[in-house]
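## retry 2 of 3
previous attempt timed out at serialization; input unchanged, resubmitting
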Amino acid sequence: MSLDSIAENVDEAVNGLFKPVASWLGDVVFYSVPVFGTQFPLIVGWLVVAGAFFSAYFGLAQVRHLKTAVRIVRGKYEQKDAPGEVNHFQALTSAVSGTVGLGNIAGVAIAIAIGGPGATFWMILCGLLGMATKFVECTLGVKYREIDADGKVTGGPMLYLRKGLAEIGKPALGKVLAVLSAAMILFFTFFGGNLFQVNQSLEQLTTVTGKEDSFFATSGGAIFYGLLIAAAVALVLIGGMRSVGQVTSRLVPSMAILYIVACILVISFNVTAIPSAIGEIFSGAFAPKGVAGGLIGALIVGFQRAAFSNEAGIGSAPIAHSAVKTKRPATEGLVAMIEPFIDTVVICTMTALTIIIAGGPKYLEARDLVASGKGDEVGGTSQGISITSDAFETALPWFPYILTFAVILFAFSTIITWGYYGERCWTYLFGKSKASAITYRISFSAIIVLGALLSLGTLVDLSDAVLFLAALFNIVGLYFLAPIVKKELAKVLNFTRRRDAGETEEQIEASELESAKV
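## retry succeeded, writing output
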């Protein structure tokens, strides 16, 4: 039996086993209610309402304290001898690498194809709200982290839900939410943050190297690609968070700049179309044409894609942010606010503008399908990437090759970050022994190779469902712990104010110690 036949049989077996579970769980997690003629997934509303609540509770911290956040990233308030493994910039790039990826390239294309240009406006708004949620969960991630004798940090929802809720008198609830959150994130790590990224990056590579005639279209080529990615990922993960931080601090800025420059080139070639495109975004947000569900339809699609892209409220990002070198948890909470801004407000918006301005044939074809009531035919990551690639090709015929390079970099950085997330959840659930860690890394690497060979579409659908189920567990805890975050924010604002006034870190710490005694 050939390798292709074996792969096909395994694919069918796995899909057959998990399809009923994925279907049932998908119906539960993404349960939708009719709103003005279109279906609204309640889990998206759960994420958006949380962002709105935390924005109000913290007095629009994402606007008022964004300048302070940028100063912290640049090292202005660096704290000497602070515990942790990576600096603020490395923690930010590590977390960004877990969110910036195919969702920004393919997801945005699907959003504006189905929801029209106006969906861009709602994506931006959802990204701004998500900044507040990221601030809350990442502050808690640092506050309740654990640091072992070797200086290695463990943090994330499994710790702040258990320890934080116990601190306020809800230990039983905290333990349950912590285990469920860790289990959900771990499942997604294997099949969403890993398999999906490998599979889709290989598909793009195959497309630009000959499609069906490409070496990578064969099982042998796919295995070679999978082994190459698996080896590179394993080398990074063996080094732990310090290694992940060092790689992403170089990789993420480079690939983001590459992608944004390409967007700017396409936009600059059509500079006269910019006012019209911006007009379409704003008019389409409130009076969309050819969109199922009209205004509400554009709003839902925009919110849904933004929530899925920046992962605010999921609980994954605090795992990376908790490794930062700081004595004051809210410093990293402020830094984490920048993450949805980069992911959604900047990169997603640049993708949307590029597609709208270029007006490529695949985008126009998708819009015509939606206008004719055939919107169900528009969707899928592969189709989304083709719309984005087609938009770039209208101005830059050679860009699909650069896009392929960017997609592979996006996939690699996402895999190593989710690999780290998964290991933290694994060790929380199964222990921190060396054998436990090795078992995880071998399993994670094996999945990378399978991801290159198999599609496992049903399993990916299931992993998407459990990821957003994690948001349900995580955000429940965030509501209870918000008052603690408010106290931490006050401490940091006092610290930065006194540092700006010329006081040294030693003077401030001595003063805080004296106040604590009193």
